[in-house]
Records
---
Amino acid sequence: MENVSKPIGTDIGINPIDRRRFIRTCGLFGAAAVTGLAGSTAAAAGSSANSDYVRGACFVPTRRMNTYQVWWRFDEDQLDTQIGYATRIHLNALRMWLSPERWWETPDEVEDQVNRLLTIADRHGIRILLCLFKNCGPVEQTPETLRDESPVTGYEVYSPAREILNNPEAWGGCYEYVDWFMDRFGSDPRLLGIEIINEPRPGMKTEHDFALAMLHRAVASRGDRPLSIGCIALNDNLHYVDHGIDVLQSHPNFLHSVKHFRQYNEKRKRLEAKTGLPYWATEWQRIRTGGLGWDGVFPKGDDWKPDYASLAPLFHRNRIGNFFWSLMLRPSYLKVHETVRWMNGVFHEDGAVYSLADARAIANDDSLVFPERRTWPDWASEVGTRLQKFLDERDQGASERSG
């Protein structure tokens, strides 16, 4: 594992603290990061209202049940259309995931696809935050789960597979993958940044060790694109600050209330002040008053539906760089009671929105007009049918208990 502990910044002749100052001076986190001052050909395409901080969405194209399928079923026309939807709500960035599994199968094809994706996004004035390892999902990785395209049984899968992540002797292919990406895209101006891994849990030793090893590998051959880790909690970033990250992240997906947001925001400010690094909220969804849904208990009432309008004004008011989950309307990655899933997203495939209020809140623009259709997407209607059956049975049970 040669060179993985190379000091931060030595590749460009500066020390770690000066590197962070250098990155700030180059404007990688402000206007330059999102309107193209570092080289995008579509700088003029962005609205002036969204040019001073990151305003993005997590993006998995419609009908792709995991990130492997984004590259296995790569569709340039689909990407062009759906990335175009992001500009309609004044976004300037999208967060996406690459697939080492697909790269191991067809490396030249994936490299070409990454270039085509970045070219499409650049044409729309969108910068991509690209994550190398997903490390999240309710099912283990197998050839079958990777290619399961059913909206009922297809889910995100762990990447890399657990048998690789849990065995340092098997990390060779992951090092090669990181080396390839940093060599080809480490200074690509079409990228907003490079996220090494999504949601490594510091309390899980193998996940934490893997995250550090891949981060060190990226730092050893870093270019000028900022590096980050997709942390779940704000303080998780402290495990990586001294190892080369340039941007803080956390995932405040569901908050209990406006008061809860204010508490989170104060912690965010303190962490930025302590580390001297900028911050992006790289996953957020809505306020949930009846439980957050992570504990295997399905959300209460209508909390399973999208409600970005409950949080978007708070992110705008505090000018927090952010990515909501998700641009396209889809079943959730998580499942409760076998195949029961909630819904998230803004756009149907045809460009209609699930909620006009949400689209306007995200865009910070009450003048926007879209066709509104408050239904499950047609391609995932069976998920909605199963959910409704579950909700009816739950309500009946509650009624019987109260009677």
---
Amino acid sequence: MILFREIRFRYEKETHDIYKLYDIETVKNSRDNTPDSLIESVFFSTKHQKPRYMIVRKIMNAYVIGNLHSPVFMCVVK
């Protein structure tokens, strides 16, 4: 399975770690063969009618990224 998508959006900073995302557009590369239903159930919805909220928190040498309810993934700075 290949996941190859670009997500374009505009954002507003709501608080020091909460961002409101809007005008969200998902561009699916022709090589992407991952079912949308899998992405929606595991990662995030590909249907973007309403604004979405995202939390970005720095913890030591990492950034925890998630929704308002729970973390979704972590990026570690080496």
---
Amino acid sequence: MPRLALTLALTLTTTLCAAARAVDPDPKGLWEVEGGGTLEVTAARGEGRYHLRWETPGGGYEGIGLQQGRRLVAAWGPGAVGLMLTRRQGDGWVGEWTTLAAGEATGGVLGREAWPGAALEGERDVTGARLDGRPYAGRVTVARAGEAYDVRWTIGAGERHVGVGLPVDASTVTIAFGEGAFGVAVYDLGGVEGVEGRYCAHGADAVGIERLRRLSRDPAGRWALEPEGTVTVTPAEGDGRFDLRWETPTGPYEGLGLLRGGRLVVGWGRAPAGAMLVRRQRGVWVGEWTDPKVAEGRSGLERWPAATLVGSHAVEGRNPSGTAYVGQVEVTRQGDVLRLRWTVGDRQHHGVGLLLDADTLAVAFGVEGFGLIVYDLRTGDRVEGRWCTLDDGAVGVERLRRDPR
């Protein structure tokens, strides 16, 4: 082979091998937890950031994750819980960190932290930058606690934090920090469909094992509608967003769906409406929403501090563009249906909702002539959807069968 051709071939082979190595496993989706429950992983703002939600017999848990190659590291706990991934670089350790509560508000920006000294254990100075860029300095102590690490920070004159850490590899450690009940996990995504994770709760020396199996819940494709008609589901821009089109004897309908936890929440009508999934988290209702006007498929977020769902609540939210808004939402009940009315500034918005369980509400919102349908995709190729409209308090049922064509 001529020298030039050989050089080009070697260069191309090296490039292709590097590209193949650069493709990391995708953790997004719904996973079955061995022993009972599910784990849903969705993309969060910022490169390599993920939001995790466990549904287990013992209750629901929220978490934040960072991906490093084929591994996903995660922290779970209350909204203030944070996650750090620190690596040994030269004679020191350099870390990146984020929090469950502040990660979305900062647009996915990571905090930074540096520790001198090649050894992990011991006490030393620490310097860093917060999520808003402000610098900080103090001391950090790392001590072995069984198979895990106990980590304690003192920042400035008296700001204190505690954490629990697990080794990711010989030169990388991940640390969860927070208050109350929280912990850290490291998942190896190298399996084709099965994943094994190591986890440790703060205050516990022992490390447990969690095994996951990916559940296929892709709604994309053509579905036969009983007794007559079809529904076509196509992926839309953004994580877990889908466009829907019904062809029925009464005419066509369009919808926009948000897939979360094996359920597809759809706002539908003669034109698509918005869709929202609201979950209760430690006395606060937290909603993720999207609508047909959203650019790049991003989601908005909304919080209602309220112990009960029905009533009038203050609203704090963030639009998909990143701008903030405040207002009120009034939730009333009509039969099996919930009605919502938002007041933001001098504008009002209306919605209709269905409770999926005691802590989860699905909502469609729009201008007029719209409705909500929620499909449970966990039943395989035969799917049932519950639907309602803004104008009626009754709930209907729609049955679909996946069309193999």
---
Amino acid sequence: MARDFPTSGWPPMIGRSLSVSEWNDYIAQYDFGPVAPSRLVLHHTFIPNLSQWRGLASMRGMQDYYRQLGWSAAPHIYVAPDGIWLFTPMSQVGIHAGSGNSGVTNGVWWYSIGLEMVGHYDAVRPSGKVWEYARVVMSSISKRLKIAPRQLISFHRDYPDAFKSCPGWAVTHDWVWGEVEAFVNNSTPAPQPPGEIGTPPPAIELLNERLMMESFSQRGTGYFPEWSSHQYALGNQMGMPTGNGGTIEDNDTTYGYQPFARDTLFWEVPKWGEVQRLYDLLGGSIPPSGLGRALLDASFRASGSTFHPEWYAHQYAFSAKLGPAVAEPSSFRLDGTQYGYQVFAQDTLYWQVPQWADIRQLSHLASASKQGDIALREALLRATYQDMGTTYHPNGPFISWPVPGISVRPFPMRTASALKAQPTRSRCMPSIRCITWYHVGVMSAA
């Protein structure tokens, strides 16, 4: 493997421009050292833009800017109209994406390559030499690291501390991944549909990303699109996390896990991409010990409760695949009758005290017509929402009893909130400069 080019100044900068053929030779022989990068974060410079770009003078100007910020490193690569520019050596951790620079995920340290596209791409996509060089860099790194584009490439705005449009609202995930995949496979990219830029359009993508982050953050640490478990959860409609993930040990093997509304996902460390489902592992029975039992206990614990295999309510919830309990059991009195209940990820179970074995589901009261059943349903809904830290509003926009052909169970993970798009140049599209209400919950067919 070849040694890197020398650096100069502070933060250390290579400051060399490469042609496509020179870049291909460079990446083919590059020595990443003991740990290779596993991610690439795409950016746009915003300033300097295309008309302001002056080659090495612009690179030195950015070096001076980063020095004033107190940075010890910078992005790794800049693609500009005049070539592929090298800044921070790729064998070193750069500074370019906050929490996307490097970190530890499930006990494994990683770092990313920062790729800057010269220009401002909130309204138009990159094109010409800038996009040609960007595709060359992304596809060659994908092939060199043997990481597929969809697993390798993320955006600066994907990370929770970004708060900006970078690499521009006109640059969308599906477009970038499709273009790079076609380049890797020497095929023609799919034609872009007419109309507004992006699939989805940038304004909708912004709203989707904010909603995803807020939803995953209600009972977890946030949404990370590069995590295989989060990709699996979305692709298989697992609902939102009911708690933070963690690791457990079983027979000298470490497993990572995270509970979601419809199941707990787990994987053997470090086989992050081999995501499995807890219900599939258990096969319909509650084990007394072993990995399955440890995951059951951990799922309830992470979700805010304790698993009791001897309890009728927990046996019922397990059999019905209602997910973990998200609060400890409680009780209330209605018209002289004492009721016990416990909120699970997909439904609330209840029973008359002391008839512990006669377990019933709140969702089955969706079409209630008798006054007594309606009163019980409303009392259970109030108690469910209270246990989730919010207030039940029977005439609110998130409640509909019944829906023809389906019983809807909108049980909140947290109170309703508002997403407010900040009126800043880099964060907000005019069409979403407003307040959008959302409610994090689970809606599923009975």
